[in-house]
Design a protein that fits this description.
Helix content is about 40%, strand content about 20%. With about 200 residues, the protein is α/β, with parallel strands linked by helices. It has a single domain, classed as 3-Layer(aba) Sandwich (Rossmann fold). It has a six-stranded parallel sheet with strand order 3-2-1-4-5-6, with helices on both faces. The longest helix is centred in the C-terminal third of the chain and has 15 residues.
């Protein structure tokens, strides 16, 4: 059975931390395919300094060109992006087992997501835990979700890059250097299209 990963995010912009995380998902689970899903309107957070979906999609394709397949499914929909609907759609497109990939911050509040029970039943959850994070909190949530939802969960541990999209947007606005934060092709795209200024 094919192992299909789903990795979503705002990706404004996609940075080297996102790429490292994606590589950890692919290698840690042994994924056959990774679907990268830029969110249209994420229900859980406001998008600061928003740019057009066209630019976010193009940057995401540039960033993940060697790691997976970028989908505009959520971007092309009206209204908020809900993961349970994306999982339903994904099952109509691919045959195999779906691995929903996320960081520990999202994992810890996963039971608060819309139709959480369906998310747990329709996907194997993969949580990427920071090496220096509190072990007990993530592990306790894993046990709770397994007990409450009969969930399948894998915890992967990695050393994250200390970078955020918010920080990068601020650096661009202030004309600061972006070395070791973005892939060269994304940095060039941002400069050529004068994004985040």
């Amino acid at each position: 059975m094919m192992k299909i990963g789903l990795y979503g995010g705002t990706f404004s912009p996609p940075h080297l931390g996102h790429i490292r995380a994606a590589r950890c998902f692919v290698e840690g689970i042994g994924l056959d395919k990774l679907i990268i899903m830029p969110a249209g309107i994420p229900p859980h957070k406001a998008v600061l300094d928003p740019i057009s979906n066209k630019h976010r999609l193009e940057m995401t394709k540039l960033a993940f060109s060697e790691l997976g397949e970028v989908s505009d499914y959520e971007m092309s929909k009206d209204g908020a992006s809900f993961t349970y609907l994306t999982l339903r759609w994904l099952k109509t497109q691919y045959e195999g087992k779906i691995y929903l990939c996320m960081g520990e911050d999202m994992f810890l509040c996963l039971d608060k997501w819309r139709e959480a029970e369906e998310i747990f039943s329709e996907s194997h959850i993969v949580c990427l835990k920071r090496e220096n994070s509190a072990y007990d909190e993530v592990e306790n949530k894993k046990k709770e979700f397994e007990r409450m939802y009969n969930a399948e969960i894998t915890i992967l541990t990695y050393e994250p890059l200390p970078v955020s999209s918010t920080e990068i947007r601020e650096k661009v606005k202030n004309g600061e250097a972006l070395e070791d934060l973005l892939s060269d092709n994304v940095a060039t795209y941002i400069a050529e299209n004068r994004l985040y200024l």
